[in-house]
Write a structure and sequence with these properties.
Number of helices: 10
CATH architecture: Alpha-Beta Barrel
Order of helices and strands: HEHEHEHHEHEHHHH
Largest sheet: 5 strands, parallel
CATH superfamily: Aldolase class I
Radius of gyration: 19 Å
Number of domains: 1
Low-confidence stretches: none
Shape: globular
Structural class: alpha/beta
Mean pLDDT: 93
Amino acid sequence: ALFLFQRLSFDKEGMIQRARRLIDLYKEVGIGKDRILIKLSSTWEGIQAGKVLEAEYGIHCNMTLLFSFAQAVACAEAGVTLISPFVGRILDWHVANGDKKTYEPSEDPGVKSVTKIYNYYKKFGYKTIVMGASFRNTGEIKALTGCDYLTISPKLLAELSKEHVKLTPTLSVKEAQACDLEKIHLDEKAFRWHHNEDQMAVEKLSDGIRKFAADAIKLERMLKERMFGTENGK
């Protein structure tokens, strides 16, 4: 997955052009677009860029920095390949901003968010893959057993490997199809309203964009130093 568009998070056309250019560069060295996921911020503009890239150019997109149900619904309607809803960062916000500091896995706000998204996607037959990300403990991971994909850190994988307990899926297509969620449609106005109603999601999305952009600047400086620094004799 390539995530280089932080500073283009509100520039739909900019994201489309940058993604197409990257795909062309990879094609020149013999790497096909089917092996690449273009990672975009789940802003309205990012989601619409993903819609165009998928439908018009066959470029697979991974929507990240996803915190609200509105973002998930818009991504499904856009037909993107994969979403990465952040479990741990949602928990972090609630711990920092609420009175409750610990949660049982089934009550973890990040777990509940991904569970709702998974159930919605499966109930209404969306093909977009749900890949839970950003975990803080193994309890969150086990509470989302059955999710399409999970991306897990080496530390938590090591902890899981020491447990000798049989896991049974907590998420399933069958149960999702029996849930009482109703299908909704979000145009831009509805998306912005519903997303704005979720204070956590608004704050975490903007914070994530700022932090990723800052990291990109650090990376650019490091590359410039390596390419043009005195250690290279220049």
